[in-house]
Amino acid sequence: MMTNRRTLRNIILFCFVAIICGWGGVGIDMLLGEPSNLESLGALIFISSPILCMILLRLFGGDGWKDLPLKPNFKQNTRWYLFAIAVYPVVIGITLFIGKLFGWIDVSKFSFSAYLPILFAAFLPEFIKNIFEESVWRGYLTVKMEQLTKNEWLVYLVVALVWQIWHLPYYLILLDDAYLAAFFPYGDVLFIITSFMVIGVWTIMYTEIFSLSRSLLPVILMHTMEDSLNPLISEGFAIVSPDKVLLVSPSFGLIPLLIYLGTGLYLRRMRKDKEHLNSRQTNHKTKTLAI
């Protein structure tokens, strides 16, 4: 009982810090008379606060470090590593193919020789960034929610809400407006609604890969691949017709979103089947020993 109370207390503290830190950073920029952007003190506060909060809770809040899943488990997780690397390129490739087929996306500027150097250049910085980010969202909040409740839908909901709310000051203030408009040209209100849906669907997929592998590295790789593919849009390799963004945008479109949702639910089914099989085997061994 005391452990559950401590876990709940620490989850509440972490969520509170994650939700307010970005806006607090923006407020500090305003007090200093500095513009809020990705090079400001406010951006540093936004990025570092959840990580620092996690470290403090693990060091002094009673959480400890034993449940931080750092082992890569390469041998038993081979297929999940392949999935993590492939899922975003495959889904985005399908989306671009459909968009090109119907004349909704212009990919005339795309070539592998031009794009691959950009992808490789983006990969390492994004990988380092996502070590910290996934240590927070999967390695801490998801782990603690799983300890608190067996209801995976509640886990999805809490993680998705906090993850998205944490992102809001980044999207709405810290990120350059022109950069964001290249991905989503419909304004802030519709962006917030759409991005909540995207993060919600992604959370199912990320949570299930994390649960199946019990390692941070697959989700770090998956998140890194997603981030590294953003130059497809930002550098003009794929130009989505403005009236078709909600349908075929690689980041916000309905078509890729439905594929990710189906993938996440399929992974959930795999995990449930695996848990059921393990439970049956454990019960069988128990009965055999009893005899």
TrEMBL record:
Ranges that cross the membrane: 7-28, 40-60, 80-102, 114-132, 153-173, 179-202, 245-267
Listed GO MF terms: endopeptidase activity
One Pfam assignment: Rce1-like
Ranges for domain CAAX prenyl protease 2/Lysostaphin resistance protein A-like: 119-227
UniProt record, GO biological process: CAAX-box protein maturation; proteolysis
Keyword field contains Cell membrane: no
Keywords recorded for this protein, A-Z: Hydrolase, Membrane, Protease, Transmembrane, Transmembrane helix
Protein known as: CAAX amino terminal protease
